[in-house]
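2024-03-11 09:14:02 DEBUG pipeline.ingest accepted 1 chain
2024-03-11 09:14:02 DEBUG pipeline.ingest length=251
2024-03-11 09:14:03 DEBUG pipeline.predict start
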Amino acid sequence: MSADALSLLMGLVLAHLVGDFLLQPRPWVEERYRLRHRSPRLLQHAGLHGLLAGGVLLVASVAMPRGLATVLLGALTVAASHWLIDLVKARLPAGELRWFLLDQVAHLLVLLGLWLAWLASLAPLRELAAWLTSPTVLGMAAAYLLVTRPLSIAIALVMQRWSEQLEETGTLASAGARIGVLERLLVLTLVLLDQLTAVGFLLAAKSVLRFGDLRDSRDRKLTEYVLLGTLLSVSTTLVLGMLVRLLLLEG
């Protein structure tokens, strides 16, 4: 993939982010949900996205010559699709993460289609498919999947004999499991990037955050439980990360 092609894709994504999150005031969003297809702000928002995308395409046409009609067609495609996607979203319940993510994916798929049409080639998709199905990527995906739900279940089973000895601590439901998942994702990423020193900083930061709670609780059982759980979570992730590096990245 050429640098010009990649720059065009990044430019289109950047223009989308600017238009959707920096240049869209909250009143515009509220009016869209209230008036839907009758909202002037929705039309204005879609037109802004068309202008931004058109500007990116115009700049790209210098390195990859295309006619002005092609640039205008691309800008109109972005504007029309953005209006339609946002209109559909306005008919769905507001404030739900799934609809927000689905909305963003739909916009990005339109930009991806526009990018491929501009290149007039499916070669980038073939390159992406070959990369995604490579042993390295599949192995890393399996490792990241393993440190989420599967390791949470395994650690919970190991810790079960001690968790039953603890009294109710008044913490958020399932918060500990989610913290553990995020912790393992960070540790695995740092190990794969060969940044073992940063793992130490991560553990130190967590220790500082938990020190006050554990000190105030004056509960030795809770202190030992948290320490054991943390060491078990981190050590298993470290071993997994080292194995991935040995077998896939350095093999």
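2024-03-11 09:14:41 DEBUG pipeline.report Residues 220-249 form the longest helix (30 residues).
2024-03-11 09:14:41 DEBUG pipeline.predict end
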